[in-house]
Known about the structure:
Blueprint: H1 2-7, E1 12-21, E2 27-35, H2 43-49, E3 66-72, H3 76-90, H4 93-110, H5 114-120, E4 121-140, E5 146-160, H6 164-175, E6 180-185, E7 188-193, E8 206-210, E9 213-217, H7 220-232, H8 240-245, E10 255-259, H9 261-276, H10 284-295, E11 304-311, E12 314-321, H11 325-329
Amino acid sequence: xxxxxxxxxxxxxxxxLSSVPRGDGMSNVRLFLNRSPESASLPLWHAMLGGAPxxxxxxxxxxxDTVLFKISDIAPGEIWQIVKSGVRDMGSREQVVAFSNGxxxxxxxxxxxxxxxxxxxxxxLLVSAQLSRQAKITMPxxxxxxxxxxxxxxxxxxxxxxxxLYQLISSALIKNEVPVIESRIGTTVLKTINKPGRxxxxxxxxxxxxGGCLVAGSNRKVVEDAIGAFNGRNGFAxxxxxxxxxxxxxxxxxxxxxxxxxxxxALKDVMAAKAESEPxxxxxxxxxxxxxxxxxxxxxxxxxxxxxxxQKDGVLIRGASPAGGQQMIx
Length: 330
């Protein structure tokens, strides 16, 4: 109990939720987690939310065709320290020894100290998904028919203090004799796993170090697009959809999240196409399609957007969503 209290577990005193319809199919939503001001600097809260609100550095990496993203002011290195102190404070002697041996063994296996890796990580993480506006992939439908879907890609970026994680990945690729193609954008080196063949979703994992961040993508193009957006300041965050979704929300924050209606429309379209290809329009595909349509019937033309702000006496999550308070609680 002492460990939990001194690290900030159980610091929440209350939760408040409000949802106000706007008349355009969206609702303004606020969720507040109340905690004591002194708990804001405790390890758990600082590791998960950071300190004072700020502009999110990784926001600039989002390509123009982004349909989903989440940015968190999370510090993996601090979380690792909490885990270690938890084992030390609450574990038995045997458990502490077993944990230490396990960490040492894992460090030896990967060729780098886990403590060094954790210490090299910064305090911001971005994950996102993109859907191409031009390229399509085909997926098997029913009766041998093919169903088209916008080509997806996935991107992640983490702030780092040095290149330890990048060097670890690079060394692992060499050690395991993984074929890698190197390319450049200016002075930035991209390393792409040369994976022959083409899956339904193009997969050529790529990494690069840019702007104090390690950027990783499901293929080279999405990383190239991310670097272009970051350098040119002309990515998703510069576009009309982002500005409309986050209008009125604080630019200085501790986290952001977004879902585009384009994502749900694409999913509904492919479900409808798969259901139509089923003989008689019945069966599990048709039933699933009907369920999916009902789930997202309220998704309008505006994106769902939220920001997280770390305040003195709590955490305010604020944004706009097609789901009202009743649906969110349900």
